[in-house]
Design goal:
The protein is of the alpha/beta class. It contains seven helices and seven strands, in the order E-H-E-H-E-H-E-H-E-E-H-H-E-H. The protein is globular, with a radius of gyration of 15 Å. The mean pLDDT is about 90.
């Protein structure tokens, strides 16, 4: 089975004061998390400051620029899944650039059980659904159709049976939206 790693990193990061793809080493580290957790091939979706962010993308990673990135995460997710259509991937593991405490161990745990084109699985942190999310190929079209605004695949997943993989012992899974959150001790 092949799980493509799909990193969403297109947003402007208004509360952060800059695109999150340009914060510290988050872009390269997030791609490393996907790779080291067992994903391949890797694709990153960029938008705000795409040219500057592209310069931070390691070799061997496919880059998709979502021209409609300002419409929200849904647009980025749809662009990324469309770019994966011609690949041999059975599933896409969707990760967000603003989850710096989510490591390869979380990705590996989500991928540990057998998966395929019909799989819907996501990390959970102390019982709360989070990222990354594993979307089997059979769901890509439905997710793209349902993705809108900043809700991504939330509405699609809400009405389906999604396996949750508890990862609260490995990470907090909270997104970082402000510089204060980025620098606060945990």
């Amino acid at each position: 089975m092949i799980a493509a790693g799909l990193l969403l990193a297109a947003g402007a990061g208004r509360r952060m004061g800059r695109p999150k793809a340009l914060v510290d080493d988050w872009l390269a580290a997030s791609l490393g998390t996907l790779r080291d957790g067992g994903c391949g091939p890797l694709t990153v979706v960029l938008g705000a400051a795409a040219d500057e962010a592209r310069a931070r993308v390691p070799d061997g990673v496919d880059v998709v620029v979502a021209d409609d990135w300002a419409d929200g995460m849904g647009a980025s997710l749809a662009a990324g899944l469309a770019a994966l259509d011609p690949t041999d991937a059975d599933a896409a593991l969707v990760h967000l650039v603003d989850l710096p405490d989510v490591g390869a161990d979380v990705v590996a745990r989500v991928l540990a059980a057998p998966y395929g084109p019909t799989t819907l699985r996501r990390a959970a942190y102390d019982g709360a659904a989070g990222h990354p999310v594993l979307l089997g190929r059979d769901h890509w079209g439905g997710v793209r159709a349902a993705a809108s605004g900043d809700r991504g695949a939330r509405d699609y997943l809400r009405v389906r049976d999604v396996e949750q993989v508890e990862c609260g012992d490995l990470a907090g899974g909270a997104d970082v939206d402000t510089n204060q959150e980025r620098t606060s001790p945990t």
